[in-house]
């Protein structure tokens, strides 16, 4: 058990819809990261928050947004969903910097 | 920009065989960290090891060992006496030292260990 909690584990929805993925980091970790894992793109970094502030952005689509709340949990919002958004979305947390990131079990998103 | 290459897409071995997973990286940064993660069939990503670019000592943890060679930009992972439970996809990853701490992952190597 990594200590990072992601909900829901599975999500099935239709094109054009909007979903919210939730992540609770390990106790004491200030940094939260979101990654997308798909067959064609592999594991791709989306965005990082540190203590409530956006710290780094990767290949995140404009239709996607995220935030980190004062209690340090984070949400990833995906809107106007397309078939190609089907993937496994991971949240990771760390104290920050180059320290190991510990991953949640992921949310598997299926777009029908 | 960083790049991590895992040329071996899939490896199959018989239990008790030794197996080495290759990882080659590219970075312009002089200081960086390298990682290995394991993704078993259940899907979670499990942290295995972190190594900084200053430390080229090999590391051993039980049946696992890692060989870091800065001269060849490689960070290879060896499993000794493999077991069926080692079956998973293994990812090598890199973070440059600095404020941006995003992991750049390789494409992974799927290891299948059979009886």
Radius of gyration of chain B: 14 Å
The overall average pLDDT of chain A, rounded, is 95
On the 0-100 scale, what is the average pLDDT of chain B? Answer: 93
Largest interface comes to:
A-B, 27 and 22 residues
- Radius of gyration of chain A, Cα only, in angstroms? 13 Å
Strand tally of chain B is 12
Q: What is the element string of chain A, with H for helices and E for strands?
A: EEEEEEEEEEE
| Uncertain ranges of chain A | none
The number of strands of chain A is 11
Oligomeric state of the chains present here: heterodimer
Number of helices, counting only DSSP H or I runs of 4 residues or more of chain A:
0
Q: What is the count of DSSP helices of chain B, taking H or I runs of 4+ residues? A: 0
Strand content of chain A: over 45%
Shape of chain A: globular
Q: How many strands, what sense, and barrel or not for the largest sheet of chain A?
A: 7 strands, mixed
Distance between the termini of chain B: 41 Å
Outline the structure in words.
The complex is a heterodimer of chains A (112) and B (115). By secondary structure, chain A is an all-beta fold. In chain A, the strands form two sheets. In chain A, strands 2, 4, 5, 6, 9, 10 and 11 form a seven-stranded mixed beta sheet that branches. Chain A is globular and about 40 Å long. Chain A is built from no helices and eleven strands. Chain B is mostly beta strands. In chain B, 0% of the residues lie in helices and 53% in strands. Chain B has no helices and twelve strands. Chain B starts with a strand and ends with a strand. The interface between A and B is medium-sized, with 27 and 22 residues.
Could you give a short description of this structure?
Chain A is built from no helices and eleven strands.
Ordered list of secondary-structure elements with their pairings:
The complex is a heterodimer of chains A (112) and B (115).
Chain A: E1 5-7, E2 10-13, E3 19-24, E4 31-38, E5 42-50, E6 53-57, E7 64-68, E8 74-78, E9 87-94, E10 102-103, E11 107-111
Parallel strand pairs in A: 2-11
Antiparallel strand pairs in A: 1-3, 3-8, 4-5, 4-9, 5-6, 7-8, 9-10, 9-11
Chain B: E1 3-5, E2 10-14, E3 19-21, E4 24-26, E5 32-39, E6 46-52, E7 59-61, E8 64-69, E9 74-79, E10 88-96, E11 104-105, E12 109-114
Parallel strand pairs in B: 2-12
Antiparallel strand pairs in B: 1-4, 3-9, 5-6, 5-10, 7-8, 8-9, 10-11, 10-12
